[in-house]
# Entry
Amino acid sequence: MVTPPGPKAKELLNKDETYITQSAVRWYPLVAESGSGCIVKDVDGNQYIDFNSGIAVLNVGHSHPRVVQAIKDQAEKLIHYSWTDFYYKPLIDLAERLTEITPGAFRKKVFMANSGAEAVEAAMKASRWHTRRPLFLAYTSSFHGRTFGAMSLTASKPVQRRRFLPGVPQVTHVPYPYCYRCPFHLEYPECGMWCVDFIDEEVLKKYHPAEDTAAMFIEAIQGEGGYVVPPEGYFPRLKKILDKYDILMVDDEVQSGMGRTGKWFAIEHFGVTPDMITIAKALASGIPLGAVVSKEELMDWEGGSHANTFGGNPVACAAALQVIQIIKQERLLENAHNQGTYLVKRLKELQQKYPIIGEVRGKGLMVGAEIVKDPETKEPAAQEVQDMMNICFKRGLAIITSGKSAMRFAPPLVITREIIDAGLEIFEGAVKEVSKQLN
Ligand SMILES: Cc1ncc(COP(=O)(O)O)c(C=O)c1O
# Structure
């Protein structure tokens, strides 16, 4: 309709600048007004193909009619009644469903939260309580949220920690298995996965006592870190080391869960069963909701030790129950797998044409394309990837970046091949233009 930001968007951007704190940095001036399926519309009537899903939240698409109806029905019946003080059915039903869809054929317990960070906090506290151990392990480039506990695990960008530290003592960060840019400058598989043994030999045996370590927080596929997929065999080997020392594996599936990768949870691609899982983002299709699903025996904390007011809100639980049904009935795991396979194939074809695309990786519809200045040196094209993103936005594709220089493809799981093609046409135009600038 108009080159964004249009007049109505500009008016709101000015007002936003007056009233909204600048701690959030927006990707580009998309002022969203409505959404349907894979399309988001701005206040000036521009339509965008949504490869963001509101940052991996709208897995069943924008305003899925069944989710909308469930929210309306529940709001008419009961909006709130504090699950940590009383009882209500949608929460109990949702907890039951979550124990069914999460990996592990053992008995489980669920804690309900409001967000990803709050779920991570709960998992930190539950694992400390159960193990009576104070320490944690996490990964470099990880993202687990912004509250003090979650921030202490997060190691994605200095700006997220600067002037906020000290955080929760003690978290030791170890290198994530990022083979394209191996932190040890080794090559897989010749490396023998030194990055796993490093944790045992150089960290646990030297300065971070295993017997004082409650849990290791992992992302099965690193989200904010660049949509990085660990190599085959990595997690089973890690789990063996953790089990040797009775260190819990807490799998943060806030971004990668709820079908995003073609399985309910990304860890299912890697043949290990974590001890605890944190879930949020896509769980209730945009209504704030988080959850921790744990092996039953690990949630043995005493009554009153941890609670909240709004976690597991009935409206959010009603939405989440619909999300789970929709993913099953519309076969969205299958669609995520099929469309994701197609997306990767198309991106790999583009990689052949444009050397600026250094690597294409992902599972299901969690796909990253690393943009580099030179495929030999792999020098990150940090500015170029931002330019690409902005060109896409102006031409009707809402997509953002991840890590230092990766394009992040995370469309709703309801996406069709036609919409992928339309989105990739815009993306290719941007790649072409930015490639020209580089030469
Ligand atoms: C893996 C992961 N964990 C935790 C969080 C934090 O979630 P929230 O923003 O809901 O606090 C995020 C957010 O991007 C995430 O990607």
